């Protein structure tokens, strides 16, 4: 079975793929210091607890944090006796090459989102991913990543507000009842929630205008369902899009090996 790993700047998600579906998904914080042995103890404990007897013999990794890749390679080698595919490395091929400026290192999570979304929907898409950053990945008619937009993440913006202003507390993002807040927390929640609804709507409209064609908007990431409550932002929400993209890239590399 395949172990697919998506390391973001905040969280790392592990999923086990049996060729047809994900049999399990677990999440941990991203820490580059974590060793292969630590990953394995954590993973094997969760597998045991859930009675999962998967024999992992392949691994694929997307990491926005280059330093974590070393220990994940050791994990693959020491415990699963395989060489991992690492998205963005020359030996990991993508179905369609990105069309970006020479020398640009596109975030592997964005490339993987592009592949996953194209596999499900075909071309002319925008993937909006609410992670550490809020990213917009534009997929051309042929499935290529053709560029996008990087905005500060929702939780990052809330944290920056709290850090920079002595009287502003830490708050969690949620949909406020009204736009006009009558207390500090409600004012901050409104600014973030309706601010991001406007940001997503505005950027997607401008992308459509710039591309001059209809485009489907796919939302992903933990906060996509929450923001979908604010406006008709997305044609679809797919929380497993990055993981799906990883399985597609793995299959593509196996078939074209
Ligand atoms: N209402 C909410 N308020 C705050 N956080 C939420 C809420 N709903 C979901 N989340 C968070 O969203 C996160 C999942 O998002 P996702 O995996 O897309 O990005 P991330 O892990 O924050 O970022 P990255 O992938 O860049 O590491 C989880 O940490 C989850 O706690
Ligand atoms: C933008 C993030 C942080 C989103 O996870 C990641 O994709 C990244 O580090 N990207 C590198 C730069 C780029 O994508 O163009
Ligand atoms: K992510």
UniProtKB/TrEMBL annotation:
Cofactor field: K(+); NH4(+)
Location(s), subcellular: Cytoplasm
Gene Ontology, cellular component aspect: cytoplasm
Signal peptide as annotated in the record: none
GO molecular function, one term: pantothenate kinase activity
Active site positions, chain numbering: 109 (proton acceptor)
EC number assigned by the record: 2.7.1.33
Entry-linked NCBIfam families: baf, PRK13318.1-2, PRK13321.1
Annotated function: Catalyzes the phosphorylation of pantothenate (Pan), the first step in CoA biosynthesis.
Assembly and interaction partners: Homodimer.
Protein's name in the database: Type III pantothenate kinase
Source organism (scientific name): Limimaricola hongkongensis DSM 17492
Name of the gene this protein is made from: coaX
């Amino acid at each position: 079975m395949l172990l697919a790993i998506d390391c973001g700047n905040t969280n790392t998600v592990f999923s086990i793929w049996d060729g047809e579906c994900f049999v399990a998904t677990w999440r941990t914080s991203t820490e580059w210091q974590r060793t292969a042995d630590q990953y394995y103890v954590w993973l094997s404990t969760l597998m045991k607890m859930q009675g999962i007897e998967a024999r992992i013999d392949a691994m694929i990794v997307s990491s926005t944090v280059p330093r974590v890749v070393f220990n994940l390679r050791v994990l693959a080698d020491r415990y699963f006796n395989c060489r991992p595919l690492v998205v963005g490395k020359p030996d990991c091929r993508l179905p369609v090459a990105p069309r970006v400026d020479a020398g640009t290192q596109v975030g592997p999570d964005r490339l993987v989102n592009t592949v996953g979304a194209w596999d499900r929907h075909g071309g002319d898409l925008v993937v909006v991913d609410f992670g550490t950053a809020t990213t917009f990945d534009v997929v051309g008619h042929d499935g290529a990543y053709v560029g996008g937009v990087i905005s500060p993440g929702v939780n990052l913006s809330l944290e920056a507000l709290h850090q920079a202003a002595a009287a502003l507390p830490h708050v969690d993002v949620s949909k406020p009842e009204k736009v006009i807040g009558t207390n500090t927390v409600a004012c901050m929640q409104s600014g973030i929630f309706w601010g991001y609804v406007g940001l997503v709507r505005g950027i997607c409209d401008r992308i459509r205008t710039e591309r001059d064609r209809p485009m489907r908007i796919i939302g992903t990431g933990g906060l996509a369902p929450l923001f979908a409550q604010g406006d008709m932002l997305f044609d679809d929400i797919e929380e497993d899009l990055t993981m799906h993209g990883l399985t597609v890239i793995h299959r593509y590399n196996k078939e074209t090996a």
